[in-house]
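hey m, so remember when u said the tokens were messed up on ur end? i reran from scratch. heres the input so u can diff it against urs
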Amino acid sequence: MRSTLIPLTLLACAGSPDPDAGAAADPDAFSDEEAARVLALGPLPALPGDPTNAVADDPAAAWFGRALFYDPRLSGPGDVACSTCHDPEQGWSDGLPVSEAVGVTDRHALSLWDTGYGRWFFWDGRCDSLWCQAAGPIEAGHEMGSSRLQVAHAVANEPDLREGYEAVFGPLPDLSDPARFPAEGRPVPDAPDHPHAVAWATMTAADQQAVTQVFVDVTKAIGAFERTILTGESPVDRYVAAFEAGDAEAMDAALSPDAQAGLRHFVTDGNCHFCHAGALTTNREFASVGLGERSWLPIDDTGRYDGIDALRTHEFNAASMWSDAPDGEAAGRLVRLNQSTEQLGLFKVPTLRNIAESPPYMHGGHFETLTDVVTHYALLEEEPLLGHLDDFMVPLDWDDQDIAEVVTFLEAMTAPPRDPAVFGPPDQTVRPDR
């Protein structure tokens, strides 16, 4: 399932080596600028709102979205769900280099941890909201292989789904006439002869709009659930709090000497903070990190370059008629987007929170371990397939010990495990009140 959400793009940047990098970090040895970088690593701010989704923070919508997230009845064959490729037991990814659902995709499944903080979604940023992101895999032939008509019928015909839907969105339209509402169908602009497109074309514009509204409501409920997938307090968060308080004993209790040394690399000679900035450890943009060919990946994946075109023309972007804020801030970002060949081969910079839970890493599952990832940035020996390596990236003078320290620091960004009951399929007998 090609989606959103997350392999690692830990960026190594120019800087001079730190002779004390192998020792535990001494807070007094940080410059004011470096100390500010440490303090910026935590805690997470309040989750921003999503005005494009009127039910983004509605508990009943999140409950319904949670049920939908685990429900294979939304898929074409009836045996694939969002959770197939975004498994909480796999760090909300799937443990595969590229995802496998109805078919095989050409990218790794992004983790969903803290995804509600995002600005752009998918590796190429072709969506600008979680509900837009949720729509794509459902109708993608090689992912869930479904269509908006099939989803609308499932919601209308399955009593539990109907009850969940109507509790949030009100009465469903009457879809019982098969002459008006075929079993399957959706717009397929680039393949008008596709059976889904042919069936869709038999419908009136009003009926098409009614079905699309149900489909959009479903995706907005899924988006509301995904906003609840939040990391907890990690050892790094505790270290930052102790650092701010000047409590050396608590700092040592939070992070091992090796993890503290890795933190020093992160904010000094590695300059990783340039792209993995702030408490979310991402600038929420895109980067080229010098990844070469892999036998399981296409060689012509343009990343952000074509992602911009896809977003501008997307049926469900933030400025669309389906957005609940078509004139809002997210819609305004669409107008300001610029496309250039400099964006060839750029992919999303993900958060590093809980990153140890979702190997393999990068947009194509290029590396099996965090050690492989950090080694890549230390050496930068590959040639990018498209575009060029970001200019500020240079090989680092890191030995095996330095690399191990950075990996230990990254592992310390993992929060304690959450109760599986929090994120599994919901108890159908307990519905939150609106």
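this time it looks ok to me. Residues 59-230 form a domain with the Cytochrome Bc1 Complex; Chain D, domain 2 fold (CATH 1.10.760.10). if urs says something different then somethings off w ur setup not the seq
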